[in-house]
Amino acid sequence: MANPVTLNVNGQDHSVEADPDSMLLYALRDDLGLHGPKFGCGLSQCGACTVLMDGAATRSCVTPVSAAAGAKIVTLEGLGTIDKPHPLQQAFIDEQAVQCGYCINGMIMTAKAFLDDNPHPSRDEIKQALNDNLCRCGTHMRIVRAIERAAKGGQG
To answer: pTM (2 decimals)?
Structure first.
């Protein structure tokens, strides 16, 4: 049975009608019209649905809406704008790290949480942090370079 749930997404409170056990991903995409998080596997194995929940990379395809109430949720849309992308988004643009683009939401959101905790990572640490995110197009090296660029402040 659907109940009103208040979600704080990208700094704004939103009320959605949702079954408490329904997945956060559906509320973000269907109710709030956000399309950064993607439905990939639905099993928390690919990372395409990743959002930040209280700063932690969280798989929204397996996170119930009820668990997100009261948390601060940030989606890809909440990082930057088209006119002023977040430095991590800009690094992905500069490194041309996107091919099909399906995995990029998860890569960027996972990288954001990772860089917040480890602002000066090694290449091996970056690869390890992204280990649970899948990319089928093969842009892994560009993705790693983009994260290295962002960690260096966009230089290089």
So the answer is: 0.94
